[in-house]
Amino acid sequence: MAKEITLLNPYNQQPLEVANDKLIDAKGKEFEKVAGAYRLVQDDNYTENFGFQWNKFTKTQIDRFSEQSSQSKTRFFAVTEWDKKDLSGENVLEVGSGAGRFSQVVLDETKANLYSVDYSNAVEANFKNNGHHQDRLQLFQASIYELPFAPASFDRVFCFGVLQHTPDVKKSVQSLAQMVKPGGELLVDFYPIRGWWTKVHAKYIFRPWTKRMSHEKLLCRIEKNANWMIRLSQFFNKIGIGKLTNRFIPICDIKNTLPPDLTKEQLKEWVILDTFDMFSPEYDQPQRVETVRQWFEEFGIKVDFAGTINFEGNNLVTAVKGIKKG
Ligand SMILES: C[S@@+](CC[C@H](N)C(=O)[O-])C[C@H]1O[C@@H](n2cnc3c(N)ncnc32)[C@H](O)[C@@H]1O
């Protein structure tokens, strides 16, 4: 059984004690627990869009609420290749958990203790989805750059779909690496740079404007236009030219990112969510696999995988994985 994680105030490195649903350090600095999560930061930061998105689409991507899709579980185990039994009693850190699609997998499928962090108030959505696992889930609204844990604490650290949305991706990898204990594992997945054409895409063309729109206005535009854009991209896929043309239609990639068996209504909901997710973030910085691999090594993680993982037939995820040197 792994020992409990030491909590630290990331702003002064003082140990934090839990008292009356608060975290308190020796100097009396307090962080409240609100709606299931300890709050170390304010909501009004660059991830507000994600808070809006995940609190609006709280259940959409959670396997437990969908008979048609177990995409989160399939992707999680395709990327991690973890044996569920090995995680019993281990301390696992998840950074950038959103509505908790992968938190749910860890908590439902394993007996690990999960420390889950997000910079936005999406922690509230995560608590709604996973709060019934209170004995093994601890939630924190905090930044990847200022994590409230003693370094080298965790058996496993994972960070899925987050790095490209942080302002300094190298520093993000460094922060994650610091949390892994010797012999422990670090896994990240992220948007890759595949070539010069990666940024020749509706997302990168329109984002400078869309990320400045109010969240309500952007969502409303997407909802209004979702039907014809879905039909058009499905038509192009059907006649075999989707790979060439669909990158210029301002919706998410239906064929290569969404679960295959969604109902029509579910498909529309996923498209609206993923399209909002595509156009609203402050930062969207895809990375070269080789660069992330080198950062891992620089920060003391011996890489055992760096590349692309295929799951559900069409879906591709780019990941780097490794073990912290002793
Ligand atoms: C695209 S979402 C992915 C959420 C979840 N991992 C998933 O795959 O559904 C990216 C998440 O990273 C979080 N995030 C971005 N910057 C962060 C930071 N500095 N520290 C912690 N979380 C951050 C956002 O708030 C958002 O919930």
UniProtKB/TrEMBL annotation:
<dbReference type="Pfam" id="PF08241">
    <property type="entry name" value="Methyltransf_11"/>
</dbReference>
<feature type="domain" description="Methyltransferase type 11">
    <location>
        <begin position="93"/>
        <end position="187"/>
    </location>
</feature>
<dbReference type="InterPro" id="IPR013216">
    <property type="entry name" value="Methyltransf_11"/>
</dbReference>
<protein>
    <recommendedName>
        <fullName>Methyltransferase type 11 domain-containing protein</fullName>
    </recommendedName>
</protein>
<dbReference type="GO" id="GO:0008757">
    <property type="term" value="F:S-adenosylmethionine-dependent methyltransferase activity"/>
</dbReference>
<dbReference type="InterPro" id="IPR029063">
    <property type="entry name" value="SAM-dependent_MTases_sf"/>
</dbReference>
